[in-house]
Amino acid sequence: MPKGSNTPVPATALRVELGWRSGPGVPDADASALLLVGGKVRSDDDFVFYNQPAHASGAVRHEGKRTAGNQVTDTLLVDLTRIEPGIETVILAASSDGGTFGQIPGLYIEVKDAAQGTVAARFDDTGATTETAFVLGEFYRRQGAWKFRAVGQGYSSGLEGLATDYGITVDEPQHAAPTPAPAAPATPPPPAAPTMNRPVTPPQPPVTRPSAPPPPATPPAPVRLTKVTLTKSAPSVSLTKQGGTSGTLHVNLNWQVRKQFSGWAAKLGRPVAMHSDLDLDLCALYELSDGTKGVVQALGNAFGSFHQPPFIHLDGDDRTGAVATGENLRVNLDYKQYFRRILVFVTIYEGARSFADLNAHVTLTPQHGAPIDFSLDECTVPSTVCALALITNSGSGDLVVQREARYLVPERGVSPQRTIDYAYGWGMNWTPGRK
């Protein structure tokens, strides 16, 4: 589609892919969406992006990134049947991370029918230079039907400039306030005058004062745009330096189920189907400061505990992979002194024989500090267990998150859990278990 043109789209669930070619020196990019009434959002909740991945209506969801060779896509799922009647426009935007869009080759946006996979619209933007944010396209209502327009409007002020232009309140970076000068010592009061006998004043009736007005409602917290993306070249980050060493560390794994044969079939000589009953299990090996070791996982109902050792809790067992739910694990950082190391990993319980062609995304969100995220690289081996992230306590209180993204292939008769134990030297004894 040329810039400025439009085309009808089916009023159904649509998959919107922001795509580009990766390579040395190529910045990362992130897809986002804004739901507008009269050209503005109704509130910050109408902004869907990596830190706020699902709209309350369920109409728009950020599904995350996928890498296949040198091609990268970041995906939004837009269900036009669930768009609230008052919403007139859904803006489809992108922001760059670590450079400008002029450094990102092959930038495009593609709209597909989510169920059929057929392409409804595609816009290739070839005119980017110094922009750090783009409105690539938009869905809009016209006479009761939905259309897609190729926009191609750039911003040099990044995601913050784009978001504020549509009415989003963005959290400003916090700066240290100047230290106030010490107050001068108070002058001691003069000695009390000697008391004298005075007439006693009769008691007065209490004065009725008007009740104070209720305090104003607390305004909603502004949107935070900061994030940390771990890559092969920058695989670790300190939670301590990010200010994220207390409260809850929320670990989320989400994935996208595809009913197709895996891409590594040609290499291995046998196809592996990805079915809708795919079941991935998020797990964690832990070692506490007193030497205690164990595992948190759905297998054997070893869901852990949040307020007592091991201070790690698995919320449940999900089979959809939706970014708003997926598999979730919580770590209680208020007890960080008890942690020596935590290895977060994922196993395939059923539905596939490898992670190949699985679009999986990991997000670690501390209660305080910036979210940490990364995508799993393309799997080229018949792996059923993948080490995701290693969290270590240096002993001086510094908590470090290390991106692993390491696919392991269990030997015949060896469980995925035992395989990852061997790889990281946990030294535990394993017995068969069931959900």
From TrEMBL:
Residues 179-193, 200-222 have a biased composition (Pro residues). Pfam families: TerD. Belongs to the CAPAB/TerDEXZ family. Residues 172-223 are annotated as: Disordered. InterPro entries: Stress/Tellurium_Resist, Tellurite_resistance_TerA, TerD. It comes from Streptomyces composti. Residues 3-166 form the TerD domain. This is Tellurium resistance.
